[in-house]
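Our consortium's second objective concerns turning raw sequence data into structural hypotheses that experimental partners can test. To show how far this objective has progressed, the report includes one record in full. It was chosen at random from the queue rather than selected for favorable results. The single chain below, 347 residues long, was entered without modification.
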Amino acid sequence: MVILFVFKIFWSLTVLYFVGDEGGERALCITFSFACLVVAMGILIVDESVLEFGLEEAYSNFTLGASLFLARQGIDSSGPASKITLKLILALWSAVIGGCFVFPGLRLAQMYNDAQKYCIDNFIIRMLLHVNFVAPLLVMLLWLKPVGREVFTKVQWGQYGILMSAEAFESFRLLLPLLLSVLRLCLTSVHMQAYLNLAHERIQLLRNEAGRIANIELQRKVARVFYYSSVVMLHYILPIILLLNIIFLLKTLGGLSWCSDSLCGQFSQYVPETSTPTVLAKLPEAIGSSLKDVSEQFHVALSSLKLVFTPVFFKGILSYALWWLCGVNFASQAFGLTYYSYFSEHR
């Protein structure tokens, strides 16, 4: 429900750029969406030995479970959807996310660029701002197998050996984006203050202009900043909420744990992956009249669906979703930082 609510607000904010008279925002959304569609189609054909989302295993597990489920119900089918259909759906979803995330990323890049000017004497805040900016890229590298899993779980580091086990690495891939999201939440006041300071900068620019300046013009410059502050806050906070919910869903539905066996021992709740569904129960042909019969039928249907949509399936889909959210976020931030840096130098 939270994810649907976030998408609803994102959709409402994005629609505003299409109903206005200005065409620049609309063109930017469409261009970025098509670029994300092309990039996503390229990403989805990369071999699992490079980007280990687990989509191949997720599709195989889903197809096997669905085929067994349909065969149990007396329906002859090789599977509900082909692999290309699944990847096309993911590519279209990626394009929609790209269109919704372009302006939040641009706004965050502007606030990051401005916040550095006001925190020039505070080394810690500046370092936290830099870490917060490159955080999505750090998370993306963990799914790049030669950089992530190979380095952390297979490379021998002298007398220390390997850094962590495979289970510990899975937990680390959950904890790192969670901690970086918390860091971004902690820096909310710094970024918002950098945005509010735009009112002061605009007044200073007006005062440097030749001629008399009407008070109504000064009031408009300041009012525009404060009226738009709620939209800026939504642009800042909504990607964090969406990312946190994807992380929690990946942990719960993907059968993962915050703490691996090697770190927490008996307190760990890590569930090993299983790629072969068990035998599915057949759904009842008639609906019972009593409450007990309805409850039993609902339990059978829910159990059957759980054996079709297994933790392996959810882990593959949600891993890609988490990686793509970070990728689009960083790409829009990098584009915005490049634009605002060039604009500030030639203003």
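The partners drew two points from this record. The chain is about 70% helix and 0% strand. The radius of gyration is 25 Å. Both points have been shared with the crystallography group to help prioritize constructs.
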